[in-house]
């Protein structure tokens, strides 16, 4: 399955639309303003909150926590590396490794050495735009879509 994420350019805070392969809006992301650390919410088409993304403060490398309601879904941690971008994700559905190129435009996501998703940031677009491929058998698609938002926050919004 492919998804497309595009950031709304002229909005207060970080706001994104998540589109399916047909270009229909299936989720929206809204960032809170005037907060310590990034806080974002992923909503379905009906306005129901699905995931809350919260940046952990006072850590050496960026750490984000993902919640469904009050329950911790996953932790996304940036790993120290020099020539490529790396993250590890610890979740209740498994552990993931994320590897990205030097410019943070292309990422591959692995679960137990199997590639389950890829992220491609589009060059020369008005606002940030991403194409995300997620394996049809992968159940943690919301986690992987939230990962794209976290990557955008770390590399392109700070």
CATH architecture: Beta Barrel
CATH structural fold name: Porin
| CATH class (first level) name | Mainly Beta
Distance between the termini: 30 Å
* Strand neighbour order, sheet with most strands: 1-2-3-4-5-6-7-8-9-10-11-12
Low-confidence stretches: none
Which percent band covers the strand fraction? over 45%
The major sheet is characterized as:
12 strands, antiparallel, barrel
> What order do the helices and strands follow?
EEEEEEEEEEEEH
Structural class estimated from helices and strands: mainly beta
Count the strands? 12
**What overall form do the CA principal axes indicate?**
globular
Contiguous helical run count: 1
Query: Average pLDDT across residues?
Result: 91
CATH superfamily grouping: LURP1-related
The overall number of domains is 1
Radius of gyration: 14 Å
> How much helical structure, as a percent, in the residues?
10-25%
Compact overview of the structure:
This protein is mostly beta strands and 158 residues long.
Task: Characterize the structure shown.
The chain has one helix at residues 141-156, and strands at 2-7, 15-19, 25-31, 39-44, 49-55, 63-68, 71-79, 85-91, 94-100, 106-111, 114-121, 129-134. The chain is mainly beta and 158 residues long. It has one domain: Porin, CATH 2.40.160. It is globular and about 35 Å long. The termini are far apart.
